């Protein structure tokens, strides 16, 4: 084991440009043995770019990388792995057509010969059991069939499995973004145990409470620079938000929601396919309805069924206005990777953007630049490819697509994953404003704080609605109680 205070990795003066964007300007960064470093910053601040350098997937244009004191002139992914440095990136990397065991084998070339499948299965199952007791994932499951939350669990567990290469530092880029509160708690408890054993972690998260509660030291990035680095206990939420340059934390959601006028005509009535009692989800014009409960318990399925019912009648679902969906899994359901940012935003508004038979580039550009301003999409040019945006900024583009459309009903499938705190607060305001104008929102979220914006919350368990809570009845405890118990 390395002595505490030894730097596992150190970057000095790291610079990186992507065309006109200066993603990193002169960043110094280090991680010591036995420490969990929290890394925070607004969308596009440069966190992922910096982590790509630590993991060896990107080389700095200039600057120096040293691992355990030794300068690395030819740093790369294989070299990082050899040195015990691994990364779980935001965009999940499991091969969807392979099983969980086969995906594990990809990272462990030493699992070969007769019986490798059994060894890989045992390796990943043991790690899943250790990190997420009671997980119910089988090593034979095909990755593409798993919910996004379960895929994230496999991805994280895989990063901690050990065969030949050592394991000293794991970078976790928003590791809890698709996990419910219970599973996220299991992971963070594991991270603390891992660090206590002398290993190191870098934890990137937009959930500031998660960073404040679990990191030993916090590094704040802003516009490609490190602007603060201090012991976690020296920070509180306000100091972090100020350092990030985000909006002031506000508590006005609850008061505003309470004072909203009573709702309008029926917009959605939907009964989950597996519901056997008479419970159903009901939403009126102008309402914000929350869907809560442990991840993967039928919330996304019901949203997708409502989305489908808007174009083709389905038993048990009534929809009375056009519907837009903000997908939570932007990689598989959301973005069109070949298209520009402007095209990705405009696709849901084609009727309005048309001039004769063709799409008017001027109207498309106007729509795009309106939303760029409104929710601060950080890019030098909206005609750039959507993949040039940071993860959180891609998510903002998906929001713009739904809110810029004519849909009276907006379905949101845990859409704030990866969005920074400043933008989140602005989007909450926007959602409440749009609801006051008569739009209906059905909002599945794994962040309990977001439910403060809702009028009613339906808690899901095993594909069914088990509770319908008014916002004033809502507590984290009550949701967890409904999620685990039989109580309604
Ligand atoms: N491959 C790329 N091509 C062009 N620009 C890029 C590329 N990767 C990153 N950028 C730009 O570099 C800047 C930093 O992005 P980065 O992904 O590091 O931010 P981040 O802090 O991780 O953001 P988020 O919280 O949204 O994930 C952004 O302006 C982004 O648009």
UniProtKB/TrEMBL annotation:
Family: Belongs to the ABC transporter superfamily.
MF terms in GO: ATP binding; ATP hydrolysis activity
UniProt cross-references to PANTHER family, sorted A to Z: CARBOHYDRATE TRANSPORT ATP-BINDING PROTEIN MG119-RELATED (PTHR43790), GALACTOFURANOSE TRANSPORTER ATP-BINDING PROTEIN YTFR (PTHR43790:SF9)
Pfam families hit by this protein: ABC_tran
InterPro entries: AAA+_ATPase, ABC_carbohydrate_import_ATPase, ABC_transporter-like_ATP-bd, ABC_transporter-like_CS, P-loop_NTPase
Record keywords: ATP-binding, Nucleotide-binding, Repeat, Sugar transport, Transport
Name used for this protein in its record: ABC transporter ATP-binding protein
Organism expressing this protein natively: Mesorhizobium helmanticense
Keyword flag Lyase: no
Domain ABC transporter: 9-248, 249-487
Domain of life: Bacteria
Keyword set includes Nucleotidyltransferase: no
């Amino acid at each position: 084991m390395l002595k505490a205070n030894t730097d596992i990795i150190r970057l000095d003066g790291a610079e990186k440009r992507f065309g006109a964007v200066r993603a990193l300007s002169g960043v110094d960064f280090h991680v010591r043995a036995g420490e969990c470093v929290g890394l925070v910053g607004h969308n596009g601040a440069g966190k992922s770019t910096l982590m790509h350098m630590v993991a060896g997937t990107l080389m700095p244009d200039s600057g120096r990388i040293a691992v355990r004191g030794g300068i690395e002139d030819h740093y790369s992914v294989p070299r990082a792995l050899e040195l015990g440095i691994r990364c779980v990136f935001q965009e999940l990397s499991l091969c969807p057509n392979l099983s969980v065991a086969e995906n594990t084998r990809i990272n462990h070339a030493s699992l070969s010969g007769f019986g490798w499948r059994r060894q890989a299965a045992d390796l990943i199952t043991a790690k899943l059991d250790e990190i997420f007791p009671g997980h119910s994932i089988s090593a034979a499951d095909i990755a593409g069939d798993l919910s996004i939350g379960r895929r994230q669990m496999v991805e994280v567990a895989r990063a901690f499995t050990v065969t030949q290469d050592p394991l000293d530092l794991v970078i976790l880029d928003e590791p809890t973004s698709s996990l419910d509160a219970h599973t996220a708690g299991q992971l963070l408890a594991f991270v603390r145990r891992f660090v206590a054993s002398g290993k190191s972690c870098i934890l990137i998260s937009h959930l500031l409470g998660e960073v404040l509660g679990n990191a030993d030291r916090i590094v704040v990035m802003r516009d490609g620079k490190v602007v603060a680095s201090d012991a976690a206990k020296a920070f509180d939420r306000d100091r972090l938000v100020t350092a990030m340059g985000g909006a002031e934390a506000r508590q006005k959601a609850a008061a505003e929601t309470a004072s909203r006028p009573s709702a309008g005509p029926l917009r959605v009535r939907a009964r989950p396919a597996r519901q056997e009692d008479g419970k159903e989800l009901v939403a009126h014009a102008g309402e914000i309805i929350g869907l809560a409960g442990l991840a993967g318990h039928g919330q996304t399925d019901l949203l997708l069924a409502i989305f489908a019912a808007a174009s083709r009648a389905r038993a048990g679902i009534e929809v009375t206005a056009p519907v837009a969906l903000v997908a939570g899994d932007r990689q598989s359901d959301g973005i069109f990777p070949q298209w520009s940012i402007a095209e990705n935003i405009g696709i849901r508004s084609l009727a309005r953007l048309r001039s004769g038979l063709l799409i008017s580039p001027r109207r498309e550009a106007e729509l795009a630049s309106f939303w760029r301003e409104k929710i601060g999409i950080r890019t030098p040019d909206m005609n750039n490819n959507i993949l040039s945006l940071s993860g959180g900024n891609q998510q903002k583009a998906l929001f713009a697509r739904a809110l810029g459309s004519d849909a009276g009903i907006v379905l949101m499938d845990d859409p704030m994953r990866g969005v920074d705190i400043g933008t989140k607060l602005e989007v909450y305001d926007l959602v409440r404003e749009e609801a006051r104008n008569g739009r209906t929102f059905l909002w599945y979220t794994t962040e309990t704080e977001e439910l403060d914006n809702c009028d009613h919350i339906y808690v899901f368990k095993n594909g069914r609605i088990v509770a319908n809570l008014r916002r004033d009845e809502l507590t984290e405890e009550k949701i967890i109680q409904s999620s685990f118990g039989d109580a309604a």
